[in-house]
Amino acid sequence: xxxxxxxxxxxxxxxxxxxxxxxxxxxxxxxxxxxxxxxxxxxxxxxxxxxxxxxxxxxxxxxxxxxxxxxxxxxxxxxxxxxxxxxxxxxxxxxxxxxxxxxxxxxxxxxxxxxxxxxxxxxxxxxxxxxxxxxxxxxxxxxxxxxxxxxxxxxxxxxxxxxxxxxxxxxxxxxxxxxxxxxxxxxxxxxxxxxxxxxxxxxxxxxxxxxxxxxxxxxxxxxxxxxxxxxxxxxxxxxxx
Length: 241
Hints:
By secondary structure, the chain is mostly helical. It has helices at residues 2-20, 26-52, 58-86, 93-119, 134-147, 155-172, 187-203, 205-227, and strands spanning 128-130, 177-179.
């Protein structure tokens, strides 16, 4: 039931995006993006509820994976397509087609990312994700709509959304290691949580876009540091069959 609530949020986001494509109401696009965030909350809760009630099952795992494709692949891809390209399509049909390709690229990368995760369970260091998680990818693109809910009004804005979809999609299928929530907890982690809560209160809608920009930049910097031999933060372990 919790997973179905997640699917309901993803489907609601799709319906709002489609209904709003020609109207372009900023508050409706923001609502569609917020529903994706809510879908992520339910996605996090379903596993906790299953473990707490001792109702984990292979069926639940499969349903959760299918829900992730729709909620964090198709729904954000369609949201960004409607938000970034539909209203510009009449005057800029080439940008509309490019936007469709970029949106599909995001969805395809999300599906590939999930498939890779499913077959690599137990084969990778649980402290790190291989590639950006699809939930983080969806939240990343949705955060742009939350921060700037007015749909694209010119070619530059549309082009930036194309670049965003390709960049986030590429990160999802990359081998860049993203820290997971299974990292060892520390006083520093608690301090960072408090700082982020303060920034959320201060920045409000802009907070999420800033958070993901910093999250991606720091992750890329960490991976580059590992390649150059830095070991201040332990790199992921390599598991062999």
